[in-house]
C-alpha cells in the first residue's frame, strides 16, 4: 500500500504526550512548502484560514487544545512571549472552557402551556367553593319601600321562583369575587380568554401591556373588574368558549381593532356583564328564568344578546370611542326594557349563522336611527374626536350600592 507524499513521524510532545507529525505539501506561488502537521493541526496557521475562525476549534476536544497550546497562542497573539498576567488569563480561560463541558440544559417544568378551561368547569369551581362570607354582602334585588314597593308588587315583573334563589345568589356572589392570583382556575380563565382571542398557543405573563391588545385598559386585568367582579371574566369566557358564539366574539374583536371604530374589547364585555347584572337585579329576567327553570343560562344568553346589539349598533352607525358613554346608556335602557326581544334576536342571529346565510346587520329598524342624546353631544364631541380619549365605561362602586353602575 502506497504512502501519501510526505513523511510521518512520532515525537514526544508536551507532558510526555506522543504527537503524530506528518509533513504536508502546500503549493505557494508555484513552490511546494513542507509543513509538519501535529495532531491534525498545522502550526503557524492563523485562525482566519479556517471557516469563520471557529470550525477547527469546534472539531477538537478541550484536551487537544491544551496539549497543542492553541489556547495560549490565541490569547497571546501568536508567537509573542507570554507574561505572568497573560498566563493567569489563559488559565482562567482554560477553567471556563472545562466548566462548559459540564453544563447541561435544564428544561423548565412550567414550559408546557396551561390547558383551556370551559365555562362549566369554571362555574363548578365556584359551586364547590365556600362563598358564605361573600353571600352576606350581595344585593340580589332592588330595595323598595312604601308606594314603590306596593306598585312593584302589583304591576311589576314576577318574582323569581324559590328553587332558583340559590342559583341567582351564586351569580351575585361571583360578581363579588375578585381575581385571585393564587387560584389556578382564575389564572386558567384569564389565559383562555387571551388565547382564544389572539390565537396564541402559549401562556402570557400575568402582567404586561399584552393585556391591552385584547381590550383591557392597563397591564393588570384585575383593575377593570370593578362592579362585576369575576363574573365579568366568566361571561367573556362563555362568549369565547361556546362554539356557537365564538365566531361572534371574533367579529366583535375584529371591530374593536378597527382603525377608527376601535374600542377596548374586554372592557366593553365587562360593561355588558354589568348591564346583565342590573337586569337580573331589577327582575327583568325573572319571567324567562322561571320559564326555563335556570338563571345562569338565561343570564349568559342575555349577556351575549346585549353584546350583539351593541356590536350591530356600533358597526352600522359608525360609532367611535367618543360615542361610548351614550351608546352604552342607550343599549342598557333598551336591553332592560326588552329582554325577551333581545333573546329572540340572538336566537335568530345564531340560527341564521348555523344555516349558512349571512346574518342581518341590524334586526331592529330603530337601531339605525341616531340616539336622541347624540344631537346634544354633537358640538362637544366635535372638538375631541381627534384627540386620544380614555375609555372608562366601567365604574367604581361604593360598598353600599354594589352593582348600581353609573357611566363615567
Automatic annotation (TrEMBL):
Biased composition (Basic and acidic residues): 377-390
Organism: Salmo trutta (Brown trout)
Domain ELMO: 185-339
This protein's encoding gene: ELMOD3
Segments for region (Disordered): 354-395
Matches recorded under PANTHER family: ELMO DOMAIN-CONTAINING PROTEIN 3, ENGULFMENT AND CELL MOTILITY
Official protein name in the record: ELMO domain containing 3
Domain of life: Eukaryota
Signal peptide: none
PROSITE patterns per the UniProt record, alphabetical: ELMO
Amino acid at each position: 500500500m502506497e504512502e501519501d507524499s510526505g513523511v510521518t513521524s512520532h515525537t514526544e510532545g508536551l507532558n510526555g504526550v506522543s504527537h503524530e507529525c506528518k509533513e504536508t505539501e502546500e503549493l505557494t506561488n508555484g513552490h511546494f512548502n513542507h509543513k509538519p502537521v501535529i495532531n491534525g493541526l498545522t502550526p503557524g496557521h492563523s485562525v482566519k484560514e479556517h471557516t469563520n475562525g471557529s470550525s477547527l476549534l469546534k472539531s477538537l476536544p478541550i484536551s487537544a487544545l491544551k496539549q497543542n497550546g492553541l489556547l495560549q497562542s490565541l490569547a497571546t497573539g501568536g508567537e509573542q512571549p507570554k507574561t505572568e498576567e497573560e498566563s493567569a488569563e489563559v488559565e482562567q480561560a482554560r477553567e471556563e472552557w472545562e466548566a462548559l463541558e459540564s453544563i447541561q440544559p435544564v428544561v423548565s417544568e412550567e414550559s408546557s402551556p396551561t390547558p383551556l378551561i370551559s365555562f362549566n368547569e369554571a362555574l363548578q369551581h365556584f359551586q364547590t367553593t365556600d362563598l358564605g362570607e361573600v353571600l352576606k354582602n350581595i344585593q340580589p334585588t332592588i330595595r323598595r319601600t312604601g308606594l314603590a314597593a306596593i306598585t312593584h308588587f302589583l304591576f311589576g315583573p314576577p318574582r323569581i321562583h324559590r328553587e332558583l334563589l340559590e342559583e341567582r345568589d351564586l351569580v351575585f356572589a361571583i360578581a363579588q369575587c375578585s381575581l385571585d392570583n393564587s387560584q389556578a382556575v382564575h389564572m386558567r380563565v384569564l389565559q383562555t380568554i387571551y388565547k382564544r382571542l389572539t390565537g396564541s398557543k402559549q401562556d402570557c405573563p400575568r402582567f404586561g401591556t399584552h393585556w391591552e391588545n385584547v381590550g383591557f385598559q392597563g397591564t393588570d386585568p384585575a383593575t377593570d373588574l370593578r362592579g362585576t367582579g369575576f363574573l365579568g371574566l366568566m361571561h367573556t369566557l362563555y362568549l369565547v368558549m361556546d362554539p356557537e358564539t365564538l365566531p361572534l366574539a371574533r367579529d366583535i374583536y375584529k371591530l374593536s381593532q378597527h382603525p377608527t371604530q376601535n374600542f377596548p374589547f374586554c372592557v366593553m364585555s365587562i360593561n355588558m356583564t354589568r348591564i346583565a347584572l342590573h337586569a337580573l337585579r331589577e327582575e327583568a329576567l325573572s319571567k324567562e328564568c322561571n320559564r326555563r327553570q335556570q338563571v345562569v343560562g338565561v343570564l349568559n344568553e342575555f349577556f351575549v344578546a346585549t353584546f350583539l346589539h351593541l356590536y350591530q349598533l356600533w358597526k352600522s352607525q359608525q360609532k367611535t370611542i367618543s360615542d361610548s358613554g351614550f351608546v352604552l346608556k342607550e343599549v342598557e335602557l333598551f336591553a332592560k326594557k326588552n329582554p325577551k326581544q333581545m333573546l329572540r334576536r340572538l336566537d335568530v342571529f345564531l340560527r341564521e349563522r348555523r344555516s349558512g346565510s349571512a346574518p342581518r346587520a341590524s334586526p331592529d329598524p330603530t337601531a339605525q336611527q341616531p340616539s336622541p342624546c347624540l344631537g346634544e353631544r354633537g358640538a362637544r364631541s366635535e372638538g375631541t374626536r381627534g384627540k386620544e380619549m380614555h375609555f372608562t365605561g366601567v365604574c367604581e362602586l361604593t360598598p353600599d350600592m354594589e352593582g348600581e353602575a353609573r357611566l363615567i
